[in-house]
Specification:
Hsp70 protein binding, mainly alpha, Hsp90 protein binding, 118 residues
């Protein structure tokens, strides 16, 4: 998914009209962004479905951020942090999507805050 987001960002930036051309496809793209928007923590592998379902339920209740202490989060350097990539992509979509981009993004992702307003 990270690779897809990077390609989408490159597509938006490659020409001036690409961002506006993607506006009709927001209804297909943005629900997936909304699901993974807060996936900023480290990836976890679960072998038990019970543990996985409990973890998934806890993530729905609390927005979890990984506390690494004095550790290094390498996904940030390699641009593989899914939540950050989604936020970057949403900001690009808003900047290059024309007048109605923010309204459409806000409709599909209610927690999104504009990067242009204020």
């Amino acid at each position: 998914m990270c690779t897809t987001l990077k390609v989408l960002q490159h597509l938006i930036l490659c020409c001036d009209l690409c961002g506006e051309a993607l506006v009709p496809y927001y209804r297909q793209l943005l629900p997936t962004f909304n699901i993974f928007k807060f996936k900023n923590g480290a990836s976890f592998l679960f072998h038990s479905t019970a543990v996985y379902s409990l973890w998934f339920a806890l993530q729905r209740v609390f927005i979890l951020a990984a506390n690494l202490g004095d550790g290094i989060e390498y996904s940030q350097q390699q641009r593989e942090n899914l939540g950050d990539l989604i936020n970057e992509t949403l900001e690009l979509l808003e900047r290059h999507g024309g007048e109605d981009a923010f309204i459409n993004i806000k409709y599909m992702i209610p927690t999104y805050e504009s990067c242009l307003l204020n």
